[in-house]
Amino acid sequence: MIVTDRLTLLPLRVEHAEKMAEVLSGPALYTFTGGEPPTVAELETRYQRQLAGPNGPDEQWLNWVIQYDDALVGYVQATVADGTAEIAWVIGSAWQGRGFAKEAAQGLVTWLRAQYIGQIVAHIHPEHAASAAVATAIGLARTDVLMDGEYLWSTAGPV
User: Fold this and answer.
1) Residue 1 to residues 58, 65, 66, 111: CA-CA distances in angstroms?
2) For a Cys staple, 95 with which of 6, 59, 73, 125, CB 3.0–4.6 Å?
3) Does 106 reside within a domain?
4) Are 64 and 12 a contacting pair, CB within 8 Å?
5) For residue 13, with 0-12 CB atoms within 10 Å meaning exposed, 13-18 middle and 19 or more buried, which class applies?
6) DSSP annotation of 103
7) How distant is the alpha carbon of residue 153 from its chain centre?
8) What's the domain count of the chain?
9) How far is residue 23's CA from residue 72's CA, in Å, rounded to a whole number?
10) What is the pLDDT of residue 144?
């Protein structure tokens, strides 16, 4: 568990699927990533796969749902390999504009730093200004690397 000023990042559980299906139901969430809102069954399957972890021992999948008061409002995740954490964050449409993405992502980065993770990266669509603002606020800078239509954002150091 990771605690910030207003949020609690709870380790992912399959039981979160029902509430998270509602959180992730806004079609606008998929403007830059593609896809569509997942069903409860799809999230249950996804969460089981995420909790099982990667096939190799050299990689970790870390996933948390974001709780504000008694409501789930989104998630953060990190894939860690070779001292680098690739992170992502999503806040449900109903909860956007309150600084939750920045606060949750900063909480995640602070926790990762405490685990001695040296490099933190994220992939962000060039037109996703809100995610770019979050990335900047948590200490990431856009690189010139464009992968699958998204820029790589990174902390200082080798990628």
Assistant:
1) 23, 10, 10, 10
2) 73
3) yes
4) yes
5) exposed
6) H
7) 14
8) 1
9) 7
10) 95
Residue range of the domain that includes 86: 2-154
pLDDT at 158: 47
Which position has the token pair 């999230």? 43
The CATH code of the domain that includes 143 is 3.40.630.30
**Is 159 inside a domain boundary?**
no
Q: Is residue 41 in a domain?
A: yes
Mean pLDDT of 135-159: 89
> Each residue of 64-101: pLDDT tens digit?
999 999 999 999 999 999 999 999 999 999 999 999 99
pTM score over 0.85 = yes
Asked if 142 and 126 count as a contact pair (C-beta separation under 8 A), the reply is: no
147 located within any domain: yes
